[in-house]
Design brief:
257 residues, alpha+beta, 6-stranded mixed beta sheet, 4-stranded antiparallel beta sheet, 31% helix, elongated
Length: 257
């Protein structure tokens, strides 16, 4: 991933509140389309212009060809707020993040965690993130629902990893049980992406707990009950199970690894 700086310059009289609303709307539109990553964007006003540093999946993430209808409307909103189209300055590659894939994968999966800021859509060949704007819009012109699902999954993951409150168990249920609201929604998003991309797309089902390693190795697919989903060798050194029928990948409980 890469760091870029956007500069917003006013071309006529306006107010900070009007400019702030237009700029934030533009940034949120970019986030909903996967063109910028993260949840919070610090916007500074200095020497007559607004500046914001952003993390993006690729050097070309802010290219107009990737813009969703919301991003296009937000650009018009900047003009109405008396702000010129943003000027982009490339800062460099982020040394603490992953590099997005440039290859079309043979299969892909929805996978995230609370420590990842990148796209939750991953190549099944390399586990590298796939920028969401590289695939057709999933719902209503962009990928807002995918980003929302990712945010909720990460929130549950962080709570259960902290293991400090009773909410740990409810959070682990949401990311690790196929009948939870979060898993059902994510599995549906997975299906939508597979339909749009024509690429086999799997859902990562988190697994923790269990009573023994032997039991873990013999547990069936939680959707169809098949025992044929156990792999001889783990995929990507992480996934020990893959159900072709149900489009689910999972791991042996982290308690036994």
């Amino acid at each position: 991933m890469y760091v870029i700086e956007l500069r917003f310059e006013c071309f006529d009289n306006t107010t900070i509140s009007i400019a702030e609303k237009a700029i934030n709307n533009y940034l949120e539109a970019l986030r909903a389309n996967g063109q910028v990553l993260g949840r919070e964007f610090a916007v500074a006003f200095n020497e007559g212009e607004f500046r914001c540093r952003l993390l993006v999946p690729e050097k070309s993430s802010l290219s107009q060809r990737h813009n969703s209808p919301w991003v296009k409307d937000a650009l018009e909103g900047l003009t109405e707020a008396k702000i010129l189209a943003p000027r982009e300055k490339f800062i460099g590659q982020d040394i603490n993040s992953e590099t997005s894939t440039t290859e079309i994968p043979s299969w892909q999966l929805l996978y995230t965690s609370y420590v990842h800021m990148c796209s939750p859509l991953r190549s099944g060949d390399t586990l590298q993130p796939i920028p969401l704007y590289q695939i057709p819009s999933t719902f209503n012109g962009d990928h807002k629902q995918v980003i929302r699902w990712q945010t909720e999954w990460q929130a549950c993951d962080e709570i259960q990893m902290a293991a400090a409150t009773k909410a740990e168990f409810a959070s682990a249920y949401e990311i690790g049980d196929v009948d939870s609201d979060l898993c059902r929604r994510g599995w549906g998003i997975r299906g939508r992406i597979e339909y749009l991309t024509k690429i086999p797309t799997y859902y990562y089902l988190y697994r923790v707990g269990g009573t023994s390693l032997k039991e873990e190795k013999n547990r069936p697919c939680p959707r169809c009950g098949s025992h044929d989903w156990k792999l001889d060798e783990p995929l990507l050194d992480m996934f020990h199970f893959r159900c072709e029928k149900c489009r689910i990948v999972s791991n042996i409980s982290w308690d036994f690894l």
